[in-house]
Every structure is written in C-alpha cells, then in structure tokens.
Amino acid sequence: MPEIIFNGPSGRLEGRYYHSKTPNAPLALILHPSPERGGTMNNKITYMMYQAMVARGFSTMRFNFRGVGKSQGVFDRGEGELSDAAAALDWMQEINQNAPYVWVAGFSFGAWIGMQLLMRRPEIEGFISVAPPADEHDFSFLAPCPSSGLIIQGGRDDVVEKEDVAKLVEKLHQQKGIEIDHRMVEGANHFFHEKTDDLIGHIHDHMNNAENAGLSVPVDVKIAA
Description:
Helix content is 31%, strand content 22%.
C-alpha cells in the first residue's frame, strides 16, 4: 500500500493506494471519521474497510482529509472535505481510465461525506455507510438516493442515535429502484471495539449478496464460519 501525495483543492493530500492486479478493476474510495474527533485514514475501521476492498479486487484508496497528517489545509466542516473526496476519486480515475464503476465506503463523518459524493458522481454504483451520523448531519440531500448500499451500525452505538439512523433508512426505503441493506452488529459500540471482524464480515456478506443479485462486484469472498 504505497504512500501517495496528490493535489487537492486546498493543497497536497496524503493517501494510501493499492492498484489491483485485475485488469480494468473497479475503484473503491474509503473515507475516515471526523478530524475534529481524531479521525484519520489510519483509523482501525477505515483501514479494515480498505483491506476488505483490496481483498475483493478493487483498486482502493484511503486518504487524509485536509489538515490531517501530511494533508495540507484546515478542517472545513464538510464542504471542503467533500471536495477532497472528489479530488481523490479524480486521481484514481486518471490512472484507471477503464475502471467500470466505483464503490464508496465511509465511517461516521466519512459516511456523510461518502453519501454526498454519491449524489454528485453517477459512476458510484454502491456504498457502505458505517454509523452514519444522522443525528448530527443533514441527509436530506438523498432525494432521491441514486444507488443501493449498506448502512450498518453497532447495536450499542453510544455516539449516533439508532433511532435517527432508522429514520434515515426508512426514508430511503420509500424510494423506488434502490435497496438499502440495514444491519446492526449486536453488542458493538460506535467504534466496534472487539467487533470489527463482525463488521467486516457483514460488509463482505452484503457485497456477496450484491453480486448474487447481479450488481457489479468483482469477486465473491467466502466468509469463514
């Protein structure tokens, strides 16, 4: 996973990128939680999602939003970070011009940014939103939501209210043409302490099901019992 530095809208951005050995592989972009709460691309959940998408054959990137690590700029409460994510996707697409589609995955704040990016980039075919902060940020922009995906949360999340996430899911379920796979990891808190393997297992299971339903997923990863 070589370190990369690429140009963002507010200066250089630091990332880690894996180039798939599969010709013309799809792309996956992984977005980390809020910098205001210590979130970086090396956050455990962010890193494990990155590894999961690498295992599935995606060319995959995770990166630090502006002002984090070696990334230049200062935290912009969402607007700038969305531009950072768009720049990261642009960078990947520039060196993968035949990539057929994109998936975006984010944890907490990163899930909010990822779903905004989803609305702006039609090449994004699927999303994974881990503990989306529906109680703190406005998700009304998902009208309509253009792609199906997974929304997953810890059953004992002590940061994001489960009721607010459930309302978001219910609202999305009312839209025609998409499927929202809403899952709970029982016993897990917001950071999935001692439950990260369960989280990643659910992500692989969702993507295996997406493949079986005819959606674009490159490989079927078998989950050990």
